[in-house]
Amino acid sequence: MKKKLFGNVSITFLLILAALLLYYQFLTQPEINEDVPLPQDLHPVVQENKDMLVQKAAERGIKVLVTDGFRSFEEQNQLYEKGRSREGQIVTHAKGGESYHNFGLAIDFALVNKSGKAYGTLTMTEMAMGNQIGWK
Fold first, then answer.
1. Which ranges constitute the DSSP H helices of 1-136?
2. Chain mean pLDDT for the chain
3. Where is the D-alanyl-D-alanine carboxypeptidase-like core domain (predicted)?
4. What DSSP character marks residue 40?
5. 3-class SS at 2?
6. Pairing of strands 63-68, 108-112
7. What's the structural domain count of the chain?
8. Is residue 97 within 8 Å of residue 43, measured between CB atoms?
9. What is 3-28 written as a DSSP string?
């Protein structure tokens, strides 16, 4: 009986803790320090990695097309409005200030087939996740 009661209390505690963490993660907005200027381009390390990705892919006969990089808050908000208040399909769930693109920390790219058609848009985050699970 004691083990069952302890187990139920533990599960309840973990559920409450998870709910609080989710509340903090998804419902609070990060603070933006207005005194620090926002980037206007890709971060130099991201730029270097982008160039390396394109070069290494080319060495293997794979053509990579970078479809997007740095985006201003205004550009991000325009993309966010697609499929909502503007025509088109939803292409992002991030508003201005919520995307790594807004801080120069993300690129999107597609692979180009032999006939020159781009297919399969990927983000750097998706590539990193693929590398973690063994994609080469």
1. 2-27, 44-59, 73-81, 124-132
2. 83
3. 41-115
4. S
5. helix
6. antiparallel
7. 1
8. no
9. HHHHHHHHHHHHHHHHHHHHHHHHHS
pLDDT at 40 over 90: yes
Strand ranges across the sheet with 108-112: 63-68, 108-112, 118-123
Residue 119 one-letter amino acid: Y
Q: What is the pLDDT of residue 133?
A: 45
Distinct helix (H) and strand (E) counts, the chain: 4, 3
By residue range, what is the domain housing residue 24?
Answer: 1-30
54 secondary structure, DSSP code: H
- Measured between alpha carbons, how far is 136 from 132 in angstroms, rounded to an integer? 10
Over the stretch 96-125, which tens digit does the pLDDT of each residue have?
999 999 999 999 988 898 888 888 776 665
- What is the chain's Cα-based Rg? 21
Residue 23, in any domain of the structure? yes
In a domain, 67, yes or no: no
pTM for this structure? 0.65
Q: Examine residue 17 and state whether it is found in any structural domain, yes or no.
A: yes
